[in-house]
Specification:
By secondary structure, the protein is α/β, with parallel strands linked by helices. It contains seven helices and six strands, in the order ααβαβαβααβββα.
Length: about 260
């Protein structure tokens, strides 16, 4: 059976066991082929989680080119995003004619956290920062993934030590064993930017100001020449395993280094 068949109607979703062999096969496939497989297998219960960085710009363009009618995009609005991120969200919406599903944190939880610990609690301790990430990002992600069978991310192996062994297709044990798709896992930064420039697609203008990785405004800064691409995220922390928790998998990660 052709795993990239376009016959969505006659196609059953792969079983848990089948996904292992499919995952191995997809390692040699292009990003477009991997995305096509996911859309054919899981639409409409598949969506891209976008923070509107460079990788997401590429993925949005690829998804809309492959099957714009089944394109689902969601984002987590933490309430602390940069204006440039909102600007590119609007550009994407207009260019591709897509609906962007926006998930906000629970207001009472945010109010309680800020009242007790202050608006910039993240600078006080790693525990405070992780609490802020949990309330503003991790918990809304769980709501966003409800009902989905597959979610698509812009993770790349080149980005950071915590991502250097990711596969293009994984089982996300942290979210009910749904499929997690990383179509750009083997792409380099140069490939990302060549695609953006060649196809003249909208991208976050913070990248032009030295931001290779973009998150919340208080927790992201431009990097200096020679610095790692993730050096601008939570730069006041010393750990080389910095993550917000969105991609924390308790099965893959035996010790809680990033949360």
């Amino acid at each position: 059976m052709d795993l990239l068949s376009s016959d969505r109607v006659n196609r059953s979703k792969p079983s848990f066991d089948q996904l292992n062999s499919i995952s191995e096969e997809m390692e040699s496939k292009s990003a477009k082929e991997v995305i096509r497989w996911a859309l054919e297998s899981y639409a409409p219960n598949v969506a891209l989680a976008s923070s509107f960085g460079a990788e997401d710009a590429v993925l949005i363009d690829l998804i809309c080119e492959i099957d714009g009618a089944h394109a689902r995009i969601f984002t987590l609005d933490t309430g602390r995003l940069n204006q440039e991120t909102y600007d590119v969200m609007e550009e994407v919406r207009k260019r591709y004619g897509v609906t962007i599903e926006v998930f906000f944190p629970d207001s009472p939880q945010v109010e309680e956290m800020v009242t007790q610990k202050g608006i910039n609690l993240m600078y006080g301790s790693i525990e405070n920062r992780k609490l802020c990430c949990k309330i503003r990002k991790v918990d809304p992600l769980k709501r966003a993934l409800t009902g989905l069978e597959c979610w698509i991310t812009g993770l790349r192996r080149e980005q950071t030590i915590t991502r250097n062994e990711i596969k293009k297709i994984e089982i996300d044990s942290a979210h009910g064993n749904i499929v997690k798709l990383n179509p750009l896992a083997d792409w380099t930064s140069d490939q990302i930017w060549k695609y953006i420039k060649d196809n003249e697609i909208p991208y976050n203008k913070l990248h032009d100001l030295g931001y290779p990785s973009i998150g919340c405004a208080p927790c992201t800064r431009a990097v200096k020449p020679g610095e790692d691409s993730r050096a601008g995220r939570w730069w006041w922390e010393n750990s080389s395993h910095k993550e917000c928790g969105l991609h924390w998998d308790p099965v893959k990660n035996k010790s809680d280094r990033s949360s």
